[in-house]
Amino acid sequence: MKAARYYDNHDIRIEDIPEQKLEPGTVRIDVAWCGICGTDLHEYLDGPIFCPPKGHPHPISGEESPVTLGHEFSGVISEVGEGVDDLKVGDHVVVEPYIVGDDVYTGPESKDYHLSKDMNFIGLAGRGGGLSENIVVRRRWVHKIDSKLPLDEAALIEPLSVAYHAVERSGAKEGQTALVGGAGPIGLLTATVLHALGLKVYISELSPLRRQKALDAGVVDEAFNPAEVDVVEEVRKRTDGKGADVAFECTSVQVVFDTLMDAVRPTGVIVVVSIWGRKAQFDMHKLVMKELDVRGTIGYVNTHPKTIALVESGKVDLKPFITKKIALEHLVDEGFDTLINHNETAVKILVSPSGKGLDEK
């Protein structure tokens, strides 16, 4: 089967590789669509980061580069392994792409399996990936979806689950006011979850194209250009001088974080969603004097079922965020190149490993 294989930074190859073996307790999924994530771009530009380098196998998967990429994907079950009796061939599914130790509890009450030692991701540290024609995944990480939900939109459930977990971490409630810093893919999806849960949502973004995308998708009440207006004052005007109840940092840019510190009300909550590659400056005095909560968030934990239910309820429309569909052979020249050099023009680029669906509008 065809697969996108990560060898090293700036070295991704489309190769023909053997299919994975179907084991007891697993299912084989024919991949319909796989999204390109910012993490994939970081591996390409600066890696290996999550991908285990050649000669350094991952302690859980036991694999080393080259590994198959892709962790945001949807598909259809084509084979069911021994011991799996609640899924069947033909079921539409998405994957919660974790690699965690066999000794880690991942049951429905767990709130921390995503923080376990040596945690990594399918499609980064081994065990196949969504940028291949099919993949074998353990039953625990496979989530069935309604067959009425288009599979291209379903490929966005994984990043939407990141946003859902971030919103959960904030404690945001219906009727509150939220400010999102940054209208990239995760910022837009965070705004989407907030809007669906009944909050008033504002977003701050320099790019006019991204601001317009947020408005066109109907997931924000207003989109501010921080180069033209004082975002803090605009938020205060709309909250009777109090400030936002919750805020989400989705850029890893210092000035954005500083803006959120000023824009939230006393006792407000700031959730840092983006991955920072350097230390940030932090106004500890402001944190104390406003009694702010600043919280980190990473991935998701038992979040997929709630995220799927939100999408299937019709409260979330993921179609506006799909900006391009490409064949696996054009992963780098049409996918990575666009997202690295023309990122304002795209939100989510989907790849069809089989080539199916590319002619559909």
Give an overview in words:
- One of its GO terms (molecular function) is oxidoreductase activity.
- Belongs to the zinc-containing alcohol dehydrogenase family.
- Its cofactor is Zn(2+).
- It holds the Pfam family ADH_N.
- InterPro entries: ADH-like_C, ADH-like_N, ADH_Zn_CS, ER, GroES-like_sf, NAD(P)-bd_dom_sf.
- With 361 residues, this protein is α/β, with parallel strands linked by helices.
- It has 2 domains: 2-156 and 318-352, Quinone Oxidoreductase, Chain A, domain 1 (Alpha-Beta Complex); 163-296, 3-Layer(aba) Sandwich (Rossmann fold).
- Helices cover 25% and strands 26% of the residues.
- It is built from 10 helices and 18 strands.
- The strands form 4 sheets. Strands 3, 5, 6, 9, 10, 17 and 18 form a 7-stranded mixed β-sheet that branches. A 6-stranded parallel β-sheet has the order 13-12-11-14-15-16, sandwiched between helices. It has a 3-stranded antiparallel β-sheet with strand order 2-1-4, with no helix packed on it.
- Strand 15 (264-272), helix 8 (284-289) and strand 16 form a beta-alpha-beta unit.
- Helix 3 packs across helix 9.
- The longest helix has 14 residues, at 157-170.
- The protein is globular and about 60 Å long.
Short structural description:
The chain is α/β, with parallel strands linked by helices and 361 residues long.
